[in-house]
Design goal:
Strand content: under 5%
Structural class: mainly alpha
Shape: globular
CATH superfamily: Formate dehydrogenase/DMSO reductase domain
Oligomer: single chain
Number of domains: 1
Radius of gyration: 22 Å
């Protein structure tokens, strides 16, 4: 019991980090209730239907997969582009990318009508389908992430392999009983990381761009049908992933001097500010052109976002807490506290952006009068996520959170190789 307590609540951790761990415990318990209901009762307690077949879980999936892609690109800045200032947080970025990837795949898995048939997407792939390609891209990305994380922590495994602790046993297992690496070994590992990172960048662009393409190629949904859609997905992924990492670093960070920490947070602050402004520019272009051209089919979805029943999701959650407040904090000064708060707000509220992509696009009938022609259970153009849907989503994000929490405790991702 003491070992478990020390694993979950290390004495060196801040009170803030311990509170987040408690929140992860509560979220997991609540999420398990929702997941049991999902497995037993299927989709009965979900609010989507035939007219609106996608809801919270699809929005959550593209939200989490974006966090993963963004966090991975931060690690690639180190291993591929040799950005020295971020060197000591690259392993943490890889762990964050892996944790959010698994959470994303669990979320989309929960949305399947027959969860047990997920394997067919990979083994019976229709390569004329974007979704078919995605199954292979995700698999390749997951394998690459796992290998890259192992190689990144390899130089530090031997330091802890002899510890009489759970971390020591795991490090010894991952190190295959080998001794510390020579300088030549370490040099070779750095080259391998550069190669893997170079492969991973186009892979991350491809799989997240393909998520955007799934929406962008649907000609029957004018709200989605745009060449900008994949680009908007990519920029949003980079923004939300970098923002999440900046928030995490306020609670869990490697052994850094105060100056090193301030330099890292300033760099991330500049990166987040630039991406946020670019994302706002793309959003302005998309909204203004679609509304200005006055084509009803194109404008209807955007009007729902701005003036529909859930107008507050855009104006208050996204624009207020996800754009204006972070902009104010970052312009005021890229000091660690401002960057972390801005990053946390962007990372959390970005779910509203994904919800405003998925649901309004389905809320507009493809044929005029369709909503009045066929009515009944599931044949309505109104969708609000149920408490059961939220509980399942809590489960998937809590799984990702626990992968991160256990990973940072059991693996040397917060330790820095001594040069």
């Amino acid at each position: 019991m003491n070992t478990l307590k020390e694993l979950l609540f290390p004495p060196t951790e801040s009170e803030g980090a311990k509170r987040l761990t408690i929140l992860a415990i509560i979220t997991l318990i609540l999420g398990l209730i929702g997941m049991v209901d999902r497995i037993i009762n299927g989709h009965i307690h979900a609010d989507y239907g035939s007219y609106i077949p996608w809801g919270l879980w699809i929005a959550g999936y593209i939200y989490l997969i974006g966090l993963s892609a963004g966090a991975f690109v931060v690690s690639a800045l180190v291993y591929v582009f040799n950005v020295k200032v971020l060197e000591k947080v690259a392993k943490l970025a890889l762990l964050t990318a892996l944790a959010t990837l698994i959470a994303a795949l669990l979320t989309v898995w929960s949305d399947l009508g027959h969860m047990s048939r997920a394997w067919r997407l990979a083994l019976r792939t229709n390569f004329g389908s974007v979704m078919g390609w995605m199954s292979w891209l995700y698999s390749a990305y997951a394998v690459l992430l796992t290998i890259e994380l192992w190689i990144a922590i390899k130089p530090d495994l031997a330091k802890y392999a002899n510890e009489d602790s759970l971390r020591g046993k795991i490090c010894n297992l991952l190190n295959f009983g080998k001794k510390e690496l020579t300088e030549e070994d370490k040099k070779q590992y750095r080259k391998t990381l550069k190669i893997l990172g170079s492969i991973g960048i186009p892979l991350a662009v491809a799989f997240h761009g393909s998520v955007g393409a799934i929406f962008g190629v649907v000609g029957a949904r004018p709200y989605w049908h745009s060449g900008l859609t994949p680009i908007i997905f990519l920029v949003g992924a980079l923004l939300s992933g970098a923002a999440l990492l900046s928030f995490i670093l306020m609670f869990w960070r490697p052994k850094l001097s105060q100056q090193e920490f301030e330099d890292i947070m300033k760099y991330l602050g500049n990166l987040i500010l630039g991406l946020l402004l670019f994302d706002v520019l793309l959003e302005w272009a998309e909204f203004s052109i679609s509304l200005w051209q006055s084509v009803p089919e194109h404008a209807e979805g955007f009007k729902l976002v701005l003036f529909g029943h859930f107008w507050w999701v855009f104006w208050i959650v996204h624009l207020g807490f996800g754009v204006i407040v972070p902009l104010y904090l970052l312009v005021k000064g890229r000091v660690p506290k401002n960057v972390a708060i801005a990053g946390g707000l962007i990372a959390v509220t970005f779910l509203s952006v994904r919800l405003n992509i998925v649901i309004p696009g389905l809320n507009v009938a493809e044929l005029e009068g369709l909503k009045h022609s066929f009515t009944g259970p599931g044949l309505v153009f109104k969708y609000v996520p149920t408490i059961w849907e939220w509980l399942v989503f809590f489960f998937t994000i809590s799984v990702g959170a626990w992968i991160f929490l256990l990973g940072k405790s059991l693996l040397p991702v917060l330790d820095v190789e001594e040069k």
